[in-house]
Amino acid sequence: MAVDTGSTSAALALEIDGRHAGFLRSFDGGGAFAEVIETPNTGAPTDKSIGTPLYDDIVASCQFPDGPLAAWVTEFLDGKAPVHDGAVILLDLNRQPVRRLEWHQGAVFSVAFPGLDAQAKESGLVTITIRPTTTKDVGGGSAVSTPAQKLTRGWLTGNFALSMPGIDCTRVTKVEPLVVTQTYLAPASGRGTPTPGPVHVGDLVVSVTASGASDFVRWGEDFIVAGHNTKSHEKDATIRYLAANLRDDVARLNVRAIGIFRVDHESTVTNAARTSQVRITMYAEQVQWAKGAETAEPAVAPAARPGTDRDVRDALGKRLAPADVVRRLREDPGTEQRPRGVASRRRLGRDVGFAWAQRHASPAELREVAAADDQDWSSLSLPEGHSLAETLAATLDTPLLYDGRLELPRDALAEGLLSGVLEALAEMNEHFDVPSG
User: Fold this and answer.
1) What is the rounded average pLDDT of the residues 267-275?
2) Phi, psi (rounded to 5 degrees) for 21
3) pLDDT of residue 28
4) What is the mean pLDDT of residues 380-390?
5) Which end of the chain is more exposed for a tag (fewer CB within 10 A), N or C?
6) Nearest to 233 by CA among 212, 254, 260
């Protein structure tokens, strides 16, 4: 029985080992079935019977999981193959159980991280497949106590960033779904519980604009053609799933031991506009993930405070000659001050405008904002529901409050926004013209 709560007010609660483990967005599988065994009879109808009961995999999707489910996924990615009992409970509008499917000794068979597309605005979901030993549908079951479900939009598959050492990934437009699978080895006798085998990480496949693919192409020529493809030539990658402000991490995926083995140049024509992309296919050996605050860089411990006069003198070192001090200040890159005030606002606007044009803007919205460059404009006028207004509200430290149309006066922030949009358009126009209709 398939259940999807995306368009209903029902809820799918998850239990693992008797503990509440969050809510699911959709659920399918878990039913019992058996194979039909046929015994032919010469000159008579074929006898049919069924074999031992088998159980469908349980396929569940959710936002990045928390608590017991997150711990289970982490152990699975580490190759530990833990097994747990659990249940999926369908709750009605009054939070009363309508259906309860229990499983016994289930193991995670696969975890599929969602595909990413810079132009997409869909909520991202992780799909987890659980392979149970047995299942049991107990109908509604008794009332359960669960916390209130958080009704959040979640993170969008267009909000992501990919990074790899030595590779410019800023022009990556798509990342295909990354699937990690646990293989199982059947017992030699044909009976008993299968034992877990190796964890298999699927290929990491990305699409990048032709103008931004030079690093990937060079790596492909070196790794594939020149034969420099030992372990020391493999790379690691980090996929950041970004919040609406495009700064904070919802989750982070670290992909290890990556090797490039295919480079495909592709060209697509849509509405008389031609786009050129390069599709990069890479193998990977290991995946690790962290969620939310777990992705933050560890805090740097404060330096130990000197305890004696000798400690102080040792920490300060010898006195420098004035000429040496001047030389150090001139050579130290830290002497470049971070822009403040007007310069800081303009830079912030440029970054937001560039990201908005790449990830969220529609052709009509791009034309409207870019048209201000041809005018002696005094403000940027954004109607209610304009995606730039939504991006600004999610990005700025001080939220923008507006009723209907938002008027941005011409200041450093607005000028920066326009310059970022025009910069993004200039890059796009190298490959296709923004549609005029």
Assistant:
1) 57
2) -125, 25
3) 94
4) 79
5) C
6) 260
Q: In Å, what is the CA distance from 406 to each residue of 77, 82, 127, 181, 416?
A: 46, 53, 39, 48, 17
- The two tokens of residue 291 are 């969620």
CA distance 365 to 354: 13
Helix-then-strand count for the chain, H and E: 8, 25
Pairing of strands 235-242, 249-270: antiparallel
Tokens 């995946």 sit at which residue? Answer: 287
Q: CA 387 to CA 375: how far, in whole Å?
A: 22
Give the separation between CA 55 and CA 210, rounded to whole angstroms. 47
CA 75, CA 72: separation in Å to the nearest integer? 5
Per the structure block, which two tokens stand in for 430? 């190298």
What's the chain's length in residues?
437
**pLDDT tens, 342-363?**
777 888 888 888 888 888 888 8
Put simply, whether the predicted model's pTM sits higher than 0.70 gets the answer: no
DSSP one-letter code for 214? H
In the prediction, which pLDDT does 378 show? 78
**Is the confidence at residue 8, as pLDDT, over 60?**
no
The full DSSP string for 346-394 is: HHHHHHHHHHHHHHT--HHHHHHHHGGGGS--SEEEE-TT-HHHHHHHH
Give the integer Cα–Cα distance in Å for 66 and 158.
22
Q: What is the DSSP string of 34-62?
A: --EEEEEETTEEEEEEE-S-EEPPEEEEE
User: What is the spatial distance between Cα 5 and Cα 8, in angstroms, rounded to a whole number?
Assistant: 5
* Cα dihedral 219, 224, 226, 229 in deg (nearest 10): 80
Measure the CA–CA gap between 36 and 48, rounded to whole angstroms. Answer: 7
Per-residue confidence (pLDDT) for residue 114, from 0 to 100: 94
β-strands 178-185, 195-201 pairing: antiparallel
Give me 93's structure tokens.
């509008």
Q: With a cut of 50, say whether residue 107 has pLDDT above it.
A: yes
What residues contact 376, with CB distance under 8 A and at least 6 apart? none
What tokens were used for 387?
Answer: 């995606």
- Cα distance between residue 27 and residue 350, in whole Å: 42
Strand 178-185 versus strand 97-113 pairing type: antiparallel
The rounded distance, in Å, linking the Cα atoms of 362 and 353 is 13
State residue 122's pLDDT score.
85
Determine how many CB atoms are found less than 10 A away from the CB of residue 154. 15
